[in-house]
Amino acid sequence: MPDPILAFVPLAAEVPPGTDIDSIVADIAESGVSAPSALRSDLQAVVQRAEEHGVDLGIVVMEKDPVHDSQLRDLATAVGTQDGGTVLVLSPGQVGSFSDTVSRVTLEAGQDRTYTGNPVVGADNFVDTLVGPQTPWGLITGLILVLVTAVAAATAVAKIRRHKARSISTSGLREAERHTQASEPSNSSGESATER
């Protein structure tokens, strides 16, 4: 019997080669930032601002882009699963993020605002998105559901009324026909005037 053919084999998570995750996790645990020393104090201010708004943020800055942009997301996931909270990983031209509290939609909206060429400005923009007003998707979904239900109920009521009106008018016509036939004079042979 031949071996089964696997149509899909998922790839394992892959962080950029040469990345020391334990060192990054230690930096994040200590100061919230794992980045070149020239950027640390400015990025720590961004982390502090996020904390003031209830977001536990860790920021990692890579000095060069990885081969695949998904490697930054994998790195953020690896750091976030050890440290918890929200992790933003920036490189000169790519970004990745992970969070155990913030939705993926919000993370990706924040990521879209990080492509500035400056990690501090990019991280600040990311925090703006996380702490800014969010679209209330639950409320919008609920309102749409109520609207669709109301339209369906109104349609059902209209169909029932239309059916009843048709039934009444049809029975009324039949009754009128019987009444007309009964009131028509007939001749001695039993034929009505309309039948002649």
Task: Describe how the helices and strands are arranged.
Elements: H1 21-31, E1 33-34, H2 37-52, E2 57-61, H3 70-83, E3 86-90, E4 95-99, H4 104-112, H5 119-131, H6 137-183
Parallel strand pairs: 1-2, 2-3
Antiparallel strand pairs: 3-4
Residues in helix, %: 55-70%
How much strand?
5-15%
Can you give the mean pLDDT?
82
Distance between the termini: 89 Å
The beta-strand count equals 4
How are strands sequenced across the largest beta sheet? 1-2-3-4
Structural shape? rod-shaped
Biggest beta sheet summary: 4 strands, mixed
| Total DSSP helices | 6
Classification by helices and strands: alpha/beta
Order of helices and strands, N to C? HEHEHEEHHH
* Rg calculated over all Cα atoms: 36 Å
Structural description of this entry:
The chain has helices at 21-31, 37-52, 70-83, 104-112, 119-131, 137-183, and strands spanning 33-34, 57-61, 86-90, 95-99. Helix 2 (37-52) packs parallel to helix 5 (119-131) and helix 4 packs antiparallel against helix 5 (119-131). The chain is rod-shaped. It has a four-stranded mixed beta sheet, sandwiched between helices. A hairpin with a 4-residue loop joins strand 3 (86-90) and strand 4. 56% of the residues lie in helices and 9% in strands. It has six helices and four strands. With 196 residues, the chain is of the alpha/beta class.
